[in-house]
Amino acid sequence: VGRGDPLEAAYLLAAQHGLDAAAAYEAVSATARAAMGLPEVRVEAGSPAELLAVRGDDLPGALSLAYSRIVVHRGRVVARTGAVREYRAHGDRAPGGGAVRDASARGTAGVLGLPRQGRTGPGGEL
Q1: Is 117:64 a contact under the CB 8 Å cutoff?
Q2: How many percent of the chain have pLDDT more than 70?
Q3: What superkingdom does the record give (predicted)?
Q4: How do residues 45-57 score in pLDDT, each as one tens digit?
Q5: H helices of 21-119, where?
Q6: 85 dihedral zone (left: phi>0; alpha: psi -120 to 50; beta)
Q7: How many domains does the chain have?
Q8: CB of 15 closer than 8 Å to CB of 57
Q9: pTM for the whole thing?
Q10: How many CB atoms lie within 10 A of CB 6?
Q11: What is the per-residue pLDDT for 34?
Q12: Is 114 inside any structural domain?
């Protein structure tokens, strides 16, 4: 599904196919590891650190905001991914003179209550 990104797949399972966020994440994490014959990951002393750190206040937020992440494999950071987003103020003009359209939260993510991707300003607006 998607571009081979398990978190993107989980987001699509939740946003487009009606799974709740926990079931979607389980499908791409523990269930996928079990299908590949990999051991269960545990966060405890003596276990190798296998972690994925993403932004988000809760699981739906983490799936929605997973474009920035840090991957830890066997206790070492093996990947960092980030994204830069640029926003124009309302009423700004796009190159060529056209008006910039407001990116509203009326898409699928907004309907499902998933957070919009991007950073918010001091008042919570994008």
Answers
A1: yes
A2: 64
A3: Bacteria
A4: 888 888 888 888 8
A5: 21-28, 30-35, 59-64, 108-111
A6: beta
A7: 1
A8: no
A9: 0.59
A10: 16
A11: 94
A12: no
Owning domain of residue 49: 6-81
Residue 99 DSSP SS3 = strand
- Which residues on neighbouring strands pair with residue 52, listed in sequence order? 71
What tokens were used for 116? Answer: 């919009």
Assigned token pair, 78? 């093996």
Residue 109 included in any domain: no
CA–CA dist 76, 49 (Å, integer): 8
Q: Closest by alpha carbon to 14, among 91, 115, 96?
A: 115
36: β partners = none
Q: Is residue 18 in a domain?
A: yes
User: How many CB atoms are closer than 10 A to CB 39?
Assistant: 10
Reduced to 3 states (helix: H, G, I; strand: E, B; else coil), residue 13 is helix
pLDDT per position as a tens digit, 57-97: 888 888 887 778 898 988 899 999 887 666 666 655 555 55
Q: Is residue 11 part of a domain?
A: yes
Q: What is the arithmetic mean of pLDDT over 113-120?
A: 54
CB 64 within 8 A of CB 109: yes
